[in-house]
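tool=predict chain=A
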Amino acid sequence: MTSLFYTFLTACYVFLVLIVSAVLLKKGIVHEEGARKFVHIFVSFSIFAIIFLIDNPILRLLGPIAFIFINAVLGIRTHSRVMGLVCYPLSMLFLILLMNEGFLAPSSVISGILAMGLGDGCAGLVGMRWGRIKIGSKTLEGTLSMLLVTFLVFILFSNSSWYISLLSACIVSIVEVVTPHGLDNLSVPIVAAILPEVL
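tool=predict ok
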């Protein structure tokens, strides 16, 4: 019963983030990409509730599965980038499945999801606002912010030393740069979650 209640609260939180994003976009406070990054960043925080409050393995999967379908429908209806929208909850689903089966530690899943949500989200915002030096479709400024934020994520949430955290952040940032647009929502969290386990 407790897990069901926390699942409901987590869903309410995610819907609230979507509503706030839509309001900010409608009022012209942010543009479309800014609204998307807002969702990108704040939805990633739901991983804490999923891991620490929802102890039923099946209910942990419910949110990501629901949002794979919701994002797919929204993406098709609004002609948005469906691949990126679907890959976000798909990567969360995959990492939670690995954690449920004992292949990944909770700290590694948190590192993976926050590297995607915070790291990639901040990289996009910094790149849009201050990006001047292009690296393919990305910017150097965005990539450096990705590296810094991901390094902080590894320091705070993984059990890695500072130099392994720095090396991991460098690898994740390179993966983000070379991955085709949209698919980085899949490659970044998976690589970021696995690195603390293998380095």
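The CA atoms of residues 41 and 162 lie 24 Å apart. The mean pLDDT is 91.
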